[in-house]
Amino acid sequence: MDLRQLSTINALSDAVTVCEYQGVKIIRIIHPMVEAGISLHGGHLLWFKPEGEKEVIWLSENAEFDLKKAVRGGIPVCWPWFGKAAAPSHGFARTSEWSLSQHRENENGVIVSLTLEDNQQTREIWPHKFHNQITFEMNAELKVSLSSTNTDTQPWSFGGALHTYFNIADINNISITGMGHTYLDSTQAGKACQGSDVLTFSAETDRVYTQSQPTILIADKNNQRTIAVTNDGDNAAVIWNPWQQLSISMADMANNSFETMVCVESTIHTPTIELQPGQSHTLATRIAIQH
Ligand code: TA6
After folding, report:
1. Residue 28 — pLDDT band, cuts 50, 70, 90?
2. What stretch of H or E contains 247?
3. Of 32, 54, 152, 288, which residue is least crowded by CB atoms under 10 Å?
4. CB-neighbour burial class of residue 82 (10 A; exposed 0-12, middle 13-18, buried 19+)
5. Integer Cα distance of 49 and 139 in angstroms
6. If you measure from the C-alpha of residue 99 to the centroid of ligand 1, how many angstroms do you get, rounded to a whole number?
7. Sheet holding 174-177, edge to edge
8. Average pLDDT value for residue range 244-257
9. For 194, what's the count of Cα atoms within 13 Å in the CB-facing half-sphere?
10. What's the CA-to-centroid distance between 83 and ligand 1, angstroms?
11. Is 265 a catalytic residue?
12. CB of 70 closer than 6 A to ligand 1?
């Protein structure tokens, strides 16, 4: 199914429409500068394509839209924890229903904001009150900002990630720079390791880089472009490719589709961030294409 071709159920403006796929509401952006899709389930960006560019974000051809699990690909919002720090893995935000709170557009692009607040379901998993707003600024670049506010009477701590899956031509012919040298290797139970300046891929890679530069560059040689990822409000950059064996074990990934994706994630890992009542924190990622 090509999600870009879904029929419109509600036109909100010239550039912003609502469509639906298997019960999942998708905010679709078709603007002279950019095309994008954002699922209200998970507050999850599914595709992003600036005019004249190939898809920047990878979405699995076997992605499952069932209003239960997180969609494989796009930008899952992992919150209020990263990974298996608690259950469910990567938190509940990526499987919660977000609300559209704002959309704006002009000739330069489109801005869409969604919100998620605590409710009975979230409090059963995590007993705190919060207000989350995620804002997608879409033009030739994409900026995603997740702002979390403590609306409770007690402090709480959180972690998470904007778990971006990037679309690349061939994992065997990309290199990543700017992620720093120091990392925890999740394929070796979080062992602290030292790497080199340039990261290339030839096996499963799952690393938490703790001293990244502000901008990480993915040189996608076969696509003749570089994707620049500038993260903010994070304390780690997670880089992940499952390689073949793990892909085969995942029902929502085609066996060889690991070849065309890599995750570079703006992450709050360790330490987590404590917010006092009324305090906010913004985790962001800015994605730009360079030729
Ligand atoms: O960010 C890397 C990671 O935590 C990996 O360990 C891998 O499990 C991946 O995320 C995907 O997790 P998911 O829960 O979406 O299958």
Report:
1. very high
2. helix 243-249
3. 32
4. buried
5. 9
6. 25
7. 99-106, 109-117, 130-138, 142-150, 280-290, 225-232, 215-220, 174-177, 198-199
8. 97
9. 0
10. 6
11. yes
12. yes
Torsion of CA 1, 76, 142, 291, to 10 degrees: -80
Give the rounded distance of the alpha carbon of 264 from its chain centre: 9
User: Would you say the CB of residue 186 lies under 6 angstroms from ligand 1?
Assistant: yes
- Main-chain dihedrals φ then ψ at residue 84, nearest 5 degrees: -95, 25
- Distance from the CA of 39 to the center of ligand 1, in angstroms? 19
Per 3-state DSSP, the chain is made up of helix, strand and coil in percentages (nearest 5) of 10, 50, 35
Eight-state DSSP code of residue 279: -
Q: Is the CB of 44 under 6 A from ligand 1?
A: no
Is the minimum distance from the CB of 73 to ligand 1 under 6 angstroms?
no
d(CA 53, CA 57): 11
Measured CA to CA, the distance from residue 139 to residue 22 in angstroms comes to 28
Rounded distance between C-alpha atoms, residue 44 and residue 267, angstroms: 16
Residue 90 in contact with ligand 1 by CB distance below 6 A = yes
Pairing of strands 142-150, 77-78: unpaired
Model confidence over 266-289: pLDDT tens digits? 999 999 999 999 999 999 999 999
Q: Is 163 a catalytic residue?
A: yes
Q: Is the pTM of this model over 0.90?
A: yes
Residue type, 113: S
DSSP letter, residue 260: G
* 112 CA distance to ligand 1 middle (Å): 26
Atom of ligand 1 nearest to the CA of 267: 1
Residue with tokens 């898809």: 55
Place of tokens 């033009």: 139
**pLDDT value, residue 1:** 77
Compute the distance between CA of residue 33 and CA of residue 139 in angstroms, rounded to an integer: 6
